Amino acid sequence: MIKNKVQELAAHIFNDVVGYRQHIHANPELSFKEFETSLFIKDKLKKWGIEYTDCANTGVVGLITGNQPSDKVIALRADMDALPIHEANDKPYRSKNHGVMHACGHDVHTSSLLGTAYILNQLKDDFGGTIKLIFQPAEELLPGGASIMIKEGVLENPKPNHIVGQHVMPLIDAGKVGFRSGIYMASTDELYVTVTGKGGHGAQPHQNIDPVVIASHIIIALQQVVSRNADPRIPSVLSFGKVIANGATNIIPNEVKIEGTFRTLDEEWRDEAHKRMKKMAEGIAESMGGSCDFDIHRGYPFLINEEKLTANARAFAEEFLGKENVVDLDIWMAAEDFSFYSQVTDACFYRLGTGNAAKDTQYSVHTPRFDVDEDALKISTGLMAYIALKQLGN
After folding, report:
1. Is 292 labelled a binding residue?
2. What is the location of CATH 3.30.70.360 in the chain?
3. Staple 133 to which of 13, 62, 118, 357, CB 3.0 to 4.6 Å?
4. 366 is in an annotated binding site
5. CATH class of 2-185+301-391
6. How far is CA 155 from the centre of its chain?
7. Residues 268-299: pLDDT tens digits?
8. CATH 2.10.220.10 applies to domain 189-298
9. What CA–CA distance (Å, rounded) separates 62 from 75?
10. Which helix (H) or strand (E) holds 9?
11. What residues are labeled active site?
């Protein structure tokens, strides 16, 4: 059975994959700067005789073609970049690059896809079709490496019928995976707002136009866009995480800068919300004697898991891991640039459980204490290989 072969190969490569993960974790690189990670990947693919090409500067695209007749193509994707976070874990494989950390599990994704590549390459006589391995840069930074790779033709020559990705999830126990069909993750937009007034002495507010007060009204008022303008059936999030009013206890500044994020699960409402936020902020500032520059950096679209592909992948996961180890996922208002792939081809993005309180790996992604239970790597490689083979019809 192909399942047994995959499991045997996954067990064989497990210790190596853990080593890959620890090496990548110890040597993290920021978005669009994954030069050493890219070389590491290419070295492994070359060693195994897997052909590859460069894409999006640091991206790598490998191809494995089965020896059985078939023109089907499936793509498997892993992201490679780290985050500007100083690691707080004291592990032998902790980051060697000060202020840079694999705090979102991309080290797991990359090492797992390498392990999957090894498995599939060993099984070429057992399947037909082509498997495209996408090692993608810059998931963490707009405009997102996925959008660039798509523009450079990663979904062409050959064109995948499907694309599958996995992402760590510390809220799920290691040994389990999670799936959700349909809309799963939110779009994301970055908001950069500059409120301009007229600064002066804090004891003479009547002679000034206070941008701090104007900015405060704007922040509060904009929440109405979500609470009173959005359809309650469409999840929406508006959050501001940075406010800079560089005055003093007795100095009213000339301007205030605000930065935030807007996320939702509907593209029409997304566009409408942009217009409403901009109009409201500018109107409030003008009515109070100031002005407002409301700049929206449009980010990733929402992520949708195609129903049939996701149902298939879930069924294959239950075959491979047992039904008790496959769980349902809720909508997740975080964003992922895998969404770009999901907008142009059938996609499935599932979650790999990495949590284990006994091993202190329950901390959220994007935090200095994030780490994974590496036992998750026992299934991450084999499961993706099994899904690919089954979806190709083998």
Report:
1. no
2. 189-298
3. 62
4. yes
5. alpha beta
6. 18
7. 999 999 999 999 999 999 999 999 999 999 99
8. no
9. 10
10. helix 2-26
11. 300, 374
